Amino acid sequence: MLKSMTGFGIAEYKDDERTVRVELRSINNRYLKVDLRLPDVLQSFESEIERSIREKINRGTVLLNVNYQSLRQESEYVLNSERLKEYYQLLSGIKKEIGSRERISVNSLIQLPGVLQKGKNREEHADALLSLCVSLVDEALKKMLEMRAVEGRHLGKDIERRKELILSILDKIETRAPDVVKEYSKRLQGRLASLLTGIAIELTDSNLCREIAIFAERCDITEEISRLKSHLYQLQEAMHSDEPIGRKLDFIVQEMFRETNTMCAKANDSVMLKDLVDIKTEIEKIREQIFNIE
């Protein structure tokens, strides 16, 4: 089943103490890129949160935004008064030993290690917040994947329709191919008859047959049609795979372009060239859709 790389999911939690809102967006990318925007309290858990996304996404740029708001009044830092007293007593003792009269300021003591510390409540709630955040990410991810699946079905229907159109044009070209040689034979005979009027030169049927055979060989596109049909069947088969097949489809489309360009170079018929241009147009539209497939 095809999956689009474009999607959106949102999940939110709110109680008397906090509000957490998770938003997930995904856009096209040839590879997988995860961009996280986390609050400070979750910065150290970036790898854990990213891992939960990478387990379920294979291609695309995924943008995660986590908005966290605490409804409680918490100080970000607390003063460790016991540590401050230890520093003061230590420095006071040294002052007496060396006979210094320099004043010990509170500002200088606060800058010493361990005097100002992160609020314990913030640290205690970090693990719980991580668990809640991962749960919300999974919920938002589920919604985003559902959206990607719905979009993937629409892409699949469009690709299927264009594939059938290409097959119908190929059938038309196959039917037209023998007439191209016949028309060339008539034009060649008429042209030669006009040029050789009044000239004592006679061309044998073998000469004409050899020239017509060379033309038929030069403009024969039977093998290219067969290979293009084969690529279309491969495209159809890949679209029903449960695995991410965006890159595989991209390769198949490149081969379809290659065969069509070869046919355009060989075709010596205006009607056939018009049909081949229509095929190239449909292949290009398929490629545009494949850019969105995971």
Name a few traits of the molecule.
294 residues; alpha+beta; Ribosomal Protein S5, domain 2; Butyryl-CoA Dehydrogenase, subunit A, domain 3; 3 domains; four-stranded mixed β-sheet; two-stranded antiparallel ribbon; elongated
Walk me through this protein's architecture:
There is one protein chain. The model has no long low-confidence stretch (mean pLDDT 82). The protein is 62% helix and 14% strand. Helix 1 packs parallel to helix 4 (120-195), helix 4 (120-195) runs antiparallel to helix 5 (205-218) and helix 7 runs antiparallel to helix 8. The chain has helices at 46-54, 81-98, 106-110, 120-195, 205-218, 222-239, 246-266, 270-290; strands at residues 7-14, 18-27, 32-37, 60-70, 77-79, 116-118. The strands form two sheets. It has a four-stranded mixed β-sheet with strand order 1-2-4-3. A two-stranded antiparallel sheet has the order 5-6.
Strand line-up across the major sheet: 1-2-4-3
Question: What structural class is derived from the secondary structure elements?
Answer: alpha+beta
Q: How many DSSP H or I helices?
A: 8
CATH fold-type name of the largest domain: Butyryl-CoA Dehydrogenase, subunit A, domain 3
Order of helices and strands: EEEHEEHHEHHHHH
Strand count, sense and closure of the main sheet?
A: 4 strands, mixed
Q: How many domain units?
A: 3
Give the strand tally: 6
Helix content: 55-70%
Q: Please give the radius of gyration in angstroms.
A: 37 Å
Mean pLDDT: 82
* Distance from first to last alpha carbon: 10 Å
**Strand content bin:** 5-15%
Taking pLDDT < 50 over at least 5 consecutive residues as the criterion, the unreliable ranges are none
Query: Which outline best applies?
Result: elongated
Using the coordinates above, name the CATH class of the largest domain: Mainly Alpha
CATH architecture of the largest domain: Up-down Bundle
Domain Endoribonuclease YicC-like C-terminal: 173-294
Organism: Candidatus Brocadia sinica JPN1
Cofactor: a divalent metal cation
InterPro entries: YicC-like_C, YicC-like_N, YicC/YloC-like
